[in-house]
């Protein structure tokens, strides 16, 4: 049996979505575990062939490109799907204990089908090897994401979701326009074939810009990051965790892969510097705004804006001697951020659950009552601060090595400064949490919520302890 | 992994495991918590004892783990690491005893002792770090684990102190990180070996290597409280006494000084470091710090702040000895690392005991404390005299070697700095001793604790300073014997300057 | 040449609609503008691929447009239902930042 036949197992969550819709409460708690185990099993089965072959393809319906669609699977995709599975499972476990603000559990049951839908959509997005297939899966992801934002039906959440959907729609139209240009000029949609045929020129530049604008909008990269904090801040905590870790990771992944693999020749050194300038601006401006927030969820949401800037810093470094380090560092940072950020939002949910609001300066005593959650928050924060031992540190170390090694030391300064600013907003949160509770009453929180948050945080630290093999696997991916 | 690789792991885990356990213990499990703390400390001291014996006979203990392609996490025990590790292990044991007595019946002890253990794990990790990457990891761990102790009291003063502390130390760490990564990018992974020597200053790399050395030394100087990077230290006095004791004597400031020692001797090698010219700048800053710290100490009325400025001044002796080329000055630097730790921790122990028992916080409140608390104030007196540098105390040994080293290196003016500093030390310590012993006690102490026992203070507050005071005396008197820190420092210096 | 003119008209349509998405405040207008923009993109897709040298149209873009229309319809449905809930909850069919 060809190992590529395991690939369809990865989009199993798409099947689970209607099942969980039909079964309702009866699907809990076993269905998420079952799906996660099956996906994990497929990933394990794929690991060995991946190591020996480097890249696997599956031609859907046995149609060969250029007409047929195909899936591409390599080390990077493996990492993305593994992180997605981990986060989705933890969030599913967490959400079982979570009661949204209004306490309407009936509506909350809608969460699981959307979760599975998002999960499957993300996995198929990572697998897609065809720019139009990417468009379709991106739309699925956006649809699920907006549904998550608006799930608890409060007017603020509805407004945030509306704004998000409109911008996402504009983004996808830009992306679609880019596809139209590419197809009209080069006649193929398959990414690998397109990369061979693409000629630098007016059309290619315009298409690149359109794809870029679309994906910048969807990822909420500086300067079009405005919609993100409201959407991620207003969503219910488990939904925020998915949005802030996985959804943005998906579109950023597409952006980086398409730009670097298709348009390597179009991206002039000047343009590359410009992209990294946008990334640096995201880091600095996002961190600054995170420091100005008074609500925990908004702090975490703005920190997402900041953290998404780091992977862009790899763009100018890929043309230098530090290419391998920059490539693996940027994506390692993205993966670790996914785990850490999900954990932080889950902790924010515990805080909301315990005291009914998430205003930082009225959260004294939280640490005394919920040490495990605060411990999880601290561990996850290591990745944001890029302190050892954490996956974030490894990613940043690699990026720093690339930037100092290639002589573009100014990006190294941005990385270091970003870490300091992150310390600013993280400690601003931690200090009041450690204060004395006095006689405040804190509600009890189901243990599984705390455990889910902790396991993701531990995951982000483990990424920092066993970085050797994953980084090698990332560097083995064919560099653009 | 051989048995030799296990030793560093045991030393690290003997404080890491208690730390994690304590975090998950309930606040009320006092006996178990204390047992874990003391058990870990005793275990560590005994393993370190075995190491001392082994390393002296030429054994090496090493443990490495490849973290990234080409970047490994390396723990290695050599003579220099043992110098610092022995100091931390012994003083940690004493500080644990002291802290258990000092903090009894206060809230948040779980948090305190957890981070306390973590802080020691970081310190021994720094001492065992076999390359710059590992050193940085533990250096950061130290920053993070000391912050909660600085803000332990939770009042506004300590929170502000904590913010200042973080701002200074994290910025310093970033400089260290930048230097480390740059060095890795420039020459690849470099392990610490005696005399350095792996780095070869090719003419085109000279500028980069100089800048990297400056970044590393600058970064480590923040924790070593070199003027003008010392601002965090006096503010951090808001912390409880055991924290100040540990912060000043062992953990933080010494970690900075030790980092500089490692980089200068075992990464660049003394010779290359001198050729690059960075050490001349360090010498000037260290000399300025010594004088500046002493002058500022003279004008402090708060006991702990006076001691803090004295630390600023005294730690720079180590940097001074490092910045002078020559084995005698190196011996001075290394031996002062130990001597300053023992002397300064005594003084902080005593200051804490006096504050705790009598409520005395200011210098002018010290009147008559000597007869009231004879054990404590005797220990304080010994430490103060040692600090001033009177023979036969430990401080004298340090200053003697530094002075001779300065003459050997042809920097006679440094002897003037040392003399001036000793005079200033005398000027701010002697009045304290005079007040304590020769002035009449006040009618009522500021805030006297009701001690149930017959002793002047709980034994756990009296015994540790008595012991460290004894060390400050013994290290001077017995300097010529085989078991003194001086001998060990000479052993290391001989390795660093071996032809 | 008709293909090119379709494409150009589509581009103009897209630009106008994009402007409307940001300039109009009423959400219904924004949603309609989105649909117009989508139609513009579809026109470009069809226009740029029709009329090859042999005069026959390429089937792939038409398949893409069909898929695109399905997606656009479902997104519009989602947007409209959101709008309805927003309006029935808060009474205004505008986003907070567009309120006067």
Structure, described:
- The complex is a heterotrimer of chains A (480), B (499) and C (100).
- Chain A has helices at residues 12-23, 30-53, 75-97, 105-108, 111-127, 131-149, 155-186, 191-197, 202-219, 227-234, 237-262, 269-291, 296-307, 309-312, 314-317, 323-355, 366-369, 371-385, 391-405, 409-433, 447-465, 468-476, and strands spanning 55-59, 70-74.
- With 480 residues, chain A is mainly α.
- Chain A has a two-stranded antiparallel ribbon with strand order 1-2.
- The longest helix of chain A has 33 residues, at 323-355.
- Chain A is globular, with a radius of gyration of 21 Å.
- The model of chain A has no long low-confidence stretch (mean pLDDT 89).
- By secondary structure, chain B is mainly alpha-helical.
- Chain B has a domain at 277-499.
- Chain B is built from 20 helices and two strands.
- The radius of gyration of chain B is 21 Å and the shape is globular.
- The mean pLDDT of chain C is 84.
- Chain C has a single domain, classed as Helix Hairpins (Orthogonal Bundle).
- With 100 residues, chain C is mostly helical.
- Chain C starts with a helix and ends in a 10-residue tail after the last helix.
- The longest helix of chain C has 32 residues, at 59-90.
- The chains are: A mainly alpha (480), B mainly alpha (499), C mainly alpha (100).
- The interface between A and B is medium-sized, with 33 and 32 residues.
Strand order across the biggest sheet of chain A? Answer: 1-2
Give the overall shape of chain A, derived from the CA principal axes: globular
Mean pLDDT level of chain A: 89
Shape of chain B: globular
Order of helices and strands of chain A: HHEEHHHHHHHHHHHHHHHHHHHH
Number of strands of chain B: 2
Give the quaternary arrangement of the chains. Answer: heterotrimer
Distance between the termini of chain A: 31 Å
| Residues in β-strands, percent of chain A | under 5%
Q: How do the helices and strands follow one another from N- to C-terminus of chain B?
A: HHEEHHHHHHHHHHHHHHHHHH
Major sheet of chain B: order of its strands?
A: 1-2
The chain-level mean pLDDT of chain B equals 86
Amount of beta strand of chain B? under 5%
End-to-end distance of chain B: 33 Å
Largest sheet of chain A: 2 strands, antiparallel
The chain pair forming the largest interface, with residue counts per chain, is: A-B, 33 and 32 residues
